[in-house]
Every structure is written in structure tokens, then in C-alpha cells.
Amino acid sequence: MTRYDRQTRLPEIGAEGQARLRASRVLVVGAGGLGSTVLPLLAGAGVGTLRVIDPDEVEESNLHRQILYRMSDLGRAKAEAAAEALTALNRECHVAPLVASLDPVLAAREIAQADLVVDGADTIAVTYALSDLCHAARIPLISASVLARSGYAGGFCGGAPSYRSIFPDLPETMPSCAGGGVMGPAVATLGALQAQMALAVLLGHEPSPLGLLLSVDLQSWRLSSFRFDTAPEPDTAAPRIVARGEIGPDDIVIELRDPREAPDLPVPHAQRMSPEDVARFEPGPDRRVVFVCATGLRAWRAARRLAARTSTPVAILAAGR
Fold first, then answer.
1. Which residues of the chain have pLDDT under 70?
2. Which of 3, 203, 232, 260 is the most buried (most CB within 10 A)?
3. How many domains does the chain have?
4. Is 134 a catalytic residue?
5. Quick one: DSSP state of residue 285?
């Protein structure tokens, strides 16, 4: 009896499907809460190559939901600790960790080598950057988000509409897990849905999860879904997400964090501004303005507001915490 006996017994998988999984290359961005469930399920199913990218280290406050890790992993890079655990789970799966923050330049290089991308990042700018790049390359993207006891998972790009087709703009406020709290089983539920969607795409199962959004509310015990196969793309994919290396000397770079949050400027010619200063700012139409914050949320809001009242080109940089 082989490792994959129970799943190859399914007529929609069989030996041919297992061979497809073995030949697949999946890029997983984020080895945190969602990644901790997605990664072992993909490795266990026999996906041949997993590229795992995450910039963070394992912290004790992660462990109630990131059950891929142990107390002995505290202080270790998540990508490297995850790779070790996954290799111990299935030595037939090649796991390639990268300890790095994902920006559009790195993302483009990594996506070009992947058959499918799983978005487990906790930075909204990364999600939009992944969607933009996957949509252009026609690579499937499985993205999810979870907070408290609810969240969603969806299949985007790869011939389906992009993330921007459903979420063209951001809400004024977006709590984080660190600030708003989250329950481990809710995270695992959404991560498991991501893994199932990813495997369905790799195996070519129908109906495809691409063009589908699943919502899970474990407070009211409600599950819902809708298809968005024909959703139109927004007229303009603004603001553009940029990498630090894409910022030029002619760009006006505005750091929205104060010195306590970000002691060092992202580039030497950056300037700090408060929201009040940004509201009065008149840069003119000839130079691009790049707004900077940790996750991209504040920068997104500032960029959209400036673009709404001027013809100035805008972009955002998520510099990380």
C-alpha cells in the first residue's frame, strides 16, 4: 500500500492525477496561520515542489494557530522551520524556503517558475501585487483572508478574473489578527479550503474553484459562495504596487509612519508626512508620488485620495514592519 493509496482510489485522481501533482510547482507566499495548514496538506498530497516565502520568525503568540511549528522553533525563520517540518512529513516533496519579504520584482521572478500561487500573506499590498502579476501571466492564484471567526477563500487569475475584480478598493479600516484577534480553527478551516482549491486546480477538477469565492462565518455557522467568472476588471489597476528597487530619484516618496514606528526612511530622499499634511499636499502632475507604510493599507488610502483630487500618478510601497 502506497502513501497516496487513499486519494488515488478516487477516480478523479488515480495514478494519472498523482503524477500531475508530483510534477507540480506551487509557490506559497506566507508560512503563517494559513500557510501552516496549506503547506502540510499540499506536501502530504504529493505536490512535487513547494517554494515557501516568508520574512518572519516563529513567535510564541503564533503557536495557537500556526501548528506547523513547535516551541523549539521559537526565533527560527518560519520558511526554514516549515521546510524542515515538511521534509520530515514527506521526503518526496522538494521544499525550497526563502526568508524574504515579497515585493513585485521578486514576485514576478518566482511566479514565472510556478504552476500555481497560494496567497497566505498578511499584507494587503502583497495580495494585490500577486494578483496583478498572476493575472498578467495567467497563473492561478488561491487567496484567503481570516479574522476572528470568519473569512473567505477564492480562486483568481489563471483565466479567471483577478482579485481586483471583486475587491477594487479597500475599506477605510481593516483590523489585523494582531489587533483584532483570531481563532485557530477558523484559520485552519480557511487554510484547508485553500489547499483543496489548489489541488483541484492542479488536478483539473470541474467545476473549477477559479472564479469562485467561498465565505465562512464560524460565529453564525454560515457558509456561502458565489461565482464571479464574468466579473469585469476595473478600468485602472491603481494604485500600482512597487518594489523598493523600482523607486527612482524623481519619485516623491512619502513615509506615512512616524519615527517611532519606522526610525529609518525607506529611501534617502523620502519625506515624512502626517495625514493632515497629505490632505494639503499638491505635488503637481509631472512626478510620481509613492506612499509608504507597513502593510500598504494607509498608503493605499492616501494614494487613492490624492489620485481622486489630482492627476498625479501614484503608487504604494509596503515596507514591512
1. 1, 171-180, 236-237, 320-321
2. 203
3. 2
4. no
5. S
Residue 181 CB-density burial (10 A; 0-12 exposed, 13-18 middle, 19+ buried): exposed
- Is residue 194 located within the same domain as residue 251? no
What's the pLDDT at 1? 59
Report how far Cα 310 is from the mean position of its chain's Cα atoms.
30
Identity of the residue numbered 180? G
For 207, residues 6+ apart whose C-beta sits below 8 A from its C-beta are none
Q: Are residues 244 and 97 in the same domain?
A: no
Residue 246's DSSP bridge partners are none
* Three cell numbers written together for 299: 498608503
Indicate which residue of 134, 157, 177, 293 is catalytic: 177
In a domain, 232, yes or no: no
Owning domain of residue 309: 240-318
Domain boundary among 179, 205, 227: 227
pLDDT in tens, 90-143: 999 999 999 999 989 999 999 999 999 999 998 888 899 999 999 999 999 999
pTM for the full model? 0.90
C-alpha cell at 31: 508560512
